[in-house]
Fold:
Amino acid sequence: MPRPPTPPFTKTDAQTKVQSAEDSWNTRDPATVASAYTIDSQWRNRDQFFTGRSQIQEFLTRKWQRELDYALRKELWSFDKDRIAVRFQYESRDIQGQWWRSYGNELWEFDEHGLMRRREASINDVPITPEERRIFGTRPTQEHGKTFPMA
Structure:
């Protein structure tokens, strides 16, 4: 099924794709998130490589079993035709209660139907205290498209 907007992207299209991805990932529903990718989508996530929606869904299931109370912010960095680059931050806690802020960059490539066929993610984790948290749940609509501070 087509997943508009489709390439070639305008700036508005790219911003829409980024916000849609953020909203989807904040559901923490592996099936919902995986549905935005092609059947044979190729992924690199940190040091892991896998292919296809089923492997993406399995990865996301494991991810959200260990990254509790996950909340994400994504920001458009650059775009061109069928590609988008984003930077992001998310916060989560582990089973022991330690909070983490994870910073990263993603490179996305889309097919003609607007499904992501390739995702490459580089991510670094920083331990934080509960008092240092800044990301709580889904981004309010009035904050869509706004830059999220690095620190």
Summary: The chain has a mean pLDDT of 97. The CA atoms of residues 75 and 87 lie 5 Å apart. Strands lie at 37-45, 48-51, 68-80, 83-93, 99-110, 116-128. The chain has three helices and six strands.
